[in-house]
Design a protein that fits this description.
heterodimer, A: alpha/beta, four-stranded parallel sheet, 37% helix, globular, B: 263 residues, alpha/beta, 2 domains, 40% helix, 11% strand, binds iron/sulfur cluster
Chain lengths: 126, 263
């Protein structure tokens, strides 16, 4: 089976991803020698309906290092491409450590985690 | 800047005929390309590429495409030439800031479309809400997310949840009550009725949507939004169109929303 493809978003035009996390993840991807796609800004690809979005989803699993899964799911949708919930795993660089994110990206298995329902999460007791 | 301008894609080639880069060199090369707004494929198969880059020793992988040697003096020049050839977007010509709709939550109520004065929203052929003109959105302004009663509007680059795409909690939905209050300034009860698509709603809608009222509603709404949502940049409020223009655009937006709701 083909290993999941990897997409890394650098969130170039905003400071919402901690810079040490995004740089750390990119550095480790480069050290690993794996094949991957790196984009300056996934939001921009969505707005410009870049053909890469479609190409990435056309063949097997996909791991995406960007931000919140709900945002990524609907950014792809706005770009004209529906992500397959059973074939997509998102590493949230806004909240995850370098180690967690890179483990998720480099492990051969896919742990799908795209949000699938509109149900509100129970708020934590205060 | 036009959204139809594509992004430049490059392939970082390290296969036969080129030297494999050291990991640190690979990292610096990719990071530098990303800072120029370019999409980079680090793989032997070049996929959608416009330009090959690499430290070519003997063989240029595909003579029909542009190949640029890393470290060459002409590197930046070649990139901008390729950008021009493709008609691609210039580096950082736009901060991609725009609303993204969570259709698992959206009820197609059209409040956002009615609220936005900048023509960002529209509808598709099935009258379903769409974000159509992302580049007309006011950078760093999350105002329309605050009039959505369903917390369905995200700005992925916003600082806090749920607007940034974080999960929507019960507590967030409680806060939506405040939004409903705000939307009442836009004629929220009218919208509630609109959703039922009753005859009664039709007549109220047409009566209440005169241009003076639309203008007064927006002015009140923006003042209230600015007081409860300190994150609406002052320059956005300051750059609002003239009162006459607001009234004109408000009417156009209301007409669009009305048509989308089939009224
Ligand atoms: S997808 Fe998320 S991480 Fe990427 S540019 Fe947009 S906000 Fe930033
Ligand atoms: S205000 Fe919210 S629920 Fe209503 S149409 Fe806009 S995004 Fe959908």
């Amino acid at each position: 089976m083909t290993p999941p493809r990897i997409l890394y978003c650098h969130c170039q035009y905003a400071q919402v991803l901690p810079s040490e996390v995004k740089e750390g993840v990119l550095r480790k991807l480069c050290e690993s020698g794996v094949a991957f796609e790196a984009v300056a800004d996934l939001c921009e690809l969505s707005a410009r309906k870049d053909p890469l979005l479609k190409e990435l989803t056309s063949n097997g699993g996909l791991k995406i290092a960007a931000c919140y899964p709900r945002a990524v799911k609907w950014l792809f949708s706005a770009g004209g491409v529906a992500l397959d919930p059973s074939m997509t795993e998102i590493c949230n660089l806004r909240t995850e450590s370098i180690e967690t994110a890179i483990d998720g990206l480099l492990r051969p298995e896919l742990h799908p985690n795209l949000p699938t329902s509109a149900k509100a999460e129970p708020s934590s007791p205060s | 800047m036009a959204l139809s301008e594509p992004i430049l894609h490059v392939a970082l080639y390290e296969g036969k005929g080129a030297r494999a880069l050291a990991p640190s060199e690979r990292f610096e090369t990719i990071r530098s390309l990303l800072s120029k707004g370019v999409a980079v494929r680090r793989a032997d198969d070049p996929g959608l590429t416009d330009v090959w880059i690499g430290d070519f020793v003997s063989l240029v992988p595909d003579p029909t495409t542009t190949a640029v040697s890393i470290g060459s003096d002409a590197f930046d020049g070649h990139l901008s030439e390729s950008r021009q050839k493709k008609g691609a977007a210039a580096t950082a010509s736009w901060k991609p800031w725009f609303p993204v709709i969570d259709y698992d939550r959206c009820t197609n109520c059209m409040q956002c479309l009615s609220f936005c004065l900048f023509g960002v929203y529209g509808v598709d052929s099935d009258r379903k809400l769409q974000v159509q003109n992302q580049d007309q959105c006011k950078t760093n302004c999350p105002a329309c997310s605050r009039v959505c009663p369903e917390a369905a509007i995200m700005f992925p680059k916003y600082k806090a949840g749920p607007i940034n795409g974080d999960l929507v909690s019960d507590a967030d939905l409680q806060r939506e009550k405040m939004k409903v209050d705000i939307s009442s300034l836009l004629g929220g009860d009218v919208y509630a009725l609109l959703r039922e698509r009753s005859e009664k709603a039709r007549s109220r809608f047409s009566k209440e949507r005169d241009s003076d009222k639309a203008l007064a509603e927006r002015q009140k709404c923006l003042t209230k939004l600015a007081s409860v949502a300190s994150d609406i940049p002052p320059e956005v409020l300051a750059s609002l169109p003239s009162p006459e223009e607001i009234a004109r655009r408000a009417e156009a937006a209301a007409a669009k929303a009305k048509a989308a709701l089939g009224l």
